[in-house]
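Contributing new records

If you add data, match the layout below exactly. Sequence lines come first and carry their own label; structure lines follow with theirs. Keep one chain per record. Anything else will be rejected by the validation script.
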Amino acid sequence: MKLLRILNGLVVRIMARCAKELALLAGLIFFGFSAIALAQSLIDGFDPNANGLVNALAVQSDGKILVGGSFTQIGGQTRNRIARLNPDGTLDTTFNPNADNTVSTIAIQPDGKILVSGAFNQIGGQTRRRIARLNSDGSLDTTFPDLGAGSVLVSSVSAFVIALQSDGKILIGGNFTFVYMNAPSLQTLARLNSDGTVDTSFSPDRSISFVTAVVIQPDGKILVGTSSGIARLNSNGTLDTTFTNFSANNDVNTIALQSDGKILIGGIFNQVSNQSRLCTARLNTNGSLDTTFNASVGACTEVSAIALQPDGKILVVGTNVAAISGTSYNLVRLTNDTAAFNAFSSTASSITFTRKDAAPIFNRVTFELSTNGVQFTRLLALLSPRLRAAE
């Protein structure tokens, strides 16, 4: 245990380095306030540096991160609207599908193939209107049809959102009308078979309008984001009346499910269920607001995508999402584990660091001090015994 005594108004930054990454654990702690930084603080050093909006992301099983949007460069190299990052945020130079317009949604199939949707008419050098499937190396999967041609007619199409069922079927949502041969039209939500043809057995509730996000729960129920909140449907498309009457004061753009069943949402809203939540919030499994989660995302104006990494950290894509330094980025990463934060307590004049409970084993813990929250001076570093000899 180490005890630091400092004056009121100063800022302490505490960092811990694991074997493979440097993470900012406690964020900025301003003494004199009643609470220290939230567990959902931002992580320093993750900066892919896209030159335009990042609208979509998905995390592969190997930890690599797929991103889509309106950008034409990322990591200092040309990438048109879709790219793949290594886990540390650097560009994966082996992946380059090249879309001719915005990519708004990305979903990864169990076989590693990648479904993408957006405003594009070409991707991978071939015509694919609004939705396409890529092979794992980024090349176009030519077995998946162009939905703007053939027996499926698409009208009034806005951007698609995509979700994958365990049986390989594909849910798509947006602001559109599908007409398939002589079947009733499908509006805002439809289901495709794994080969890209329309599943005519799916009949979604027609009270759902302008679908902005779709996620399928492990039990087969379907979470649907709209311009005013979230609804949950049963697997056949009927409304699930057991889900709390959830409301937001603007669009819910993205939904992500945690392993414990809780529901992360992002969008344009600043209120959820009449409580203040800027761009991000978390719901309990029944749809009620999780009041323990209130992520700090700075002066955010919109979150367009959220994804969970295998280690539980939360990737957030949006506009004016602020990093620790106060600089605005399009893509940031949040922690999502309170275990390490149980180690910290503070008073107006001191802070105590204790490693206990389920906190990860670190190679180094660094304490830094600042008077302005921007420039920091190192106070001390605690090293593991095997590293002390090396330094």
